[in-house]
Sequence to fold (337 residues):
Amino acid sequence: MENSKKRNDYSDSRFAVAPMIDWTDRHCRTFHRQFTRHALLYTEMVVADAAIHGNRERILGFAEDEHPVALQLGGSDPAKLAEAARVGEAMGYQEINLNVGCPSDRVQSGTFGACLMQTPGVVAACVHAMKQAVALPVTVKCRIGVDDQDTEVALDDLAGAVFQTGANALWVHARKAWLKGLSPKENRDIPPLDYDRVYRLKRQNPNQFIGINGGIQTLDEAVKHLNHVDGVMLGRAAYQNSMLLLDVDTRIYGDDGASASIGAIIDHMCDYADAHIVRGGRLSHITRHMVGMFHGAAGARRWRQILSTEANQANATSAVIRRAFEAIQTTPAEEAA
Fold:
């Protein structure tokens, strides 16, 4: 099918769901794919060594119907990243992305993630090695700077380095990463977002794909950003309120016939959950990603309660999802969520 082709043309990646550690696993991506055919989905960040030496099916496995799906790698060794990129290509991913934005202590201790903003030459060498290793698009996700860096200089230097070595796209989280003095959780809101900085970068690089990320809550906001940049990426908003993805294909891609019905999404996830359980998995592996599906709707509290409690039982099946969905359907519209 069209979405399973290798994506050497990056122009159709106008909307993406961000890579999020502990969140965007294969079950999450399968769930999100039911809402949108076209959005680009990302894996959690996978450290290059894990991709090379780990259990590939467990760490990198995904379903064909997740496409288009991209693998995000973490690391700073060009040779290792090149080998990990080859593994990702062989597994069937359609893009390889390098993480230059994560500020967590775990990432800093490995000398990769956001701290690579301080060494654009290293990032360029990593991109070059991956481009030489695979035929897929190789992209970078970064911040506008770290700590006391001048964001005008830091972002220009990083962008110039990666585009010179052939990067197909640069996704920019429009906030500095503070590697000292702030926790990763605090860094989600501090310091302030600076979307204009990303807009300026795009104006300076009219022929390069530049996408924006950070604090975007609605599709209305996403559409406005697309007046200034090539792509928009949502993270927590898409995860915590997955229903907003239902309008992505129509509003972002102009595909009026793509949206699935809510009932069809529930049916698919029930079938998917039961198949996962047959293979030895647990229902909660899947339902933990579905808790926010009816965010703000009447009955959402009951939906959350059922999934959060009953799905954790050892013998839980998709009947739990169906009971939770029935609670949504039978809750009076005027009842607060």
Remarks:
- The chain is about 40% helix and 10% strand.
- Residues 1-7 have pLDDT under 50 and may be disordered.
- Strands lie at 15-17, 40-47, 69-74, 96-100, 138-143, 169-173, 210-213, 231-234.
- The domain at 2-251 is CATH 3.20.20.70 (TIM Barrel).
